[in-house]
Every structure is written in C-alpha cells, then in structure tokens.
ATP synthase subunit b
Amino acid sequence: MLTSGVILLNGGLLSPNPGLIFWTTVSFVIVLLILRKLAWGPIISALEEREKGIQSSIDRAHKAKDEAEEILRKNRELLAKADAESDKIIREGKEYGEKLRAGIAEKAQAEAAKMISMAKEEIEQEKRRALDVLRNEVAELAVMGAEKIIKTSLDADMQKKIVDSMIQDLSTKRN
C-alpha cells in the first residue's frame, strides 16, 4: 500500500520475517563457500607468508642482537687487552728509562773516577818532573857553590859523581 509516497510493509523493519532470515542465511553461506573456495586460500597463504616474514624478521633481529652482543664482548676483551698491553708498555718504558738512567749514572761515575785517576797520575808526573828539575837546579847550584868555594874547576866526570852523590844523599834524607 502506498500512502503519501512511503511504502509500508507488513511488519516493520525490526520485526522478524522467517523467509528473509532463511534467504539471508542461505546467501551468506553461499557467499561464505565461494569466498572459502576463491579467497580463503590466498588470504590464509598471505597470512602465513606474513607470519613467516615476521618470524624471519624476529629471528634475524635475535641473530643480529646475538652478533652485536658477541661483537661487544669481543670489543670489551680487545679493549681490556689493549689496556693491559699499554700498561705493560708503560711499565717496560719506565723500567728501561730507570736502567738507562742507572747506566748513565754508573758510566758518569766511572768516567769521573777515571778522570780523577788520570788527574792524580798527571799530578804525580808533574811532581816528579818538578823534583827532577829542582834536583838538577840544586845540583847546579851546589856545583857552582863548590866551585866558588874551592876555586877550582872540576872536570865533568868528577862533577857528575859529586852531583849523583848529593842526589842520593838528598833522596835518602827525604824518604
């Protein structure tokens, strides 16, 4: 029935109609079967592929995490070894420096002792030379004094004997 442009059906939109429910259910089951045949397989395989992809990504992430932890552990070990090696090198450098310093000090002491010894020897030689010169001068003075005293000139052999005798006398008196 048509009244003023509105179609009124028997019953309302919310009142149950068994025929409509039946055909709606049949249509739904048919669409469901068609979708199951045509779309369910691809949807499931797409979901399985997606699940495999996600699982693969998770596995790769775990593997990358494990590798990163291993690399971090190795880096820490290498850093510890490098620290130990640097400490060893520093310690060896200090020991070498100390040995070098001790060697230089020892060498300097030996050189100083050698220089002192050489200086003492040189002083002793100069002392001997000075004594020899002094003896010769004393001998000459003694000869000149003796010549003046006795007013005679002695020959060279006699003069040498007298000088040697005086030198021996002086040496024995000094020692």
Summary: The CA atoms of residues 163 and 169 lie 10 Å apart. The chain has one domain: 19-174. Helices lie at 18-150, 156-174.
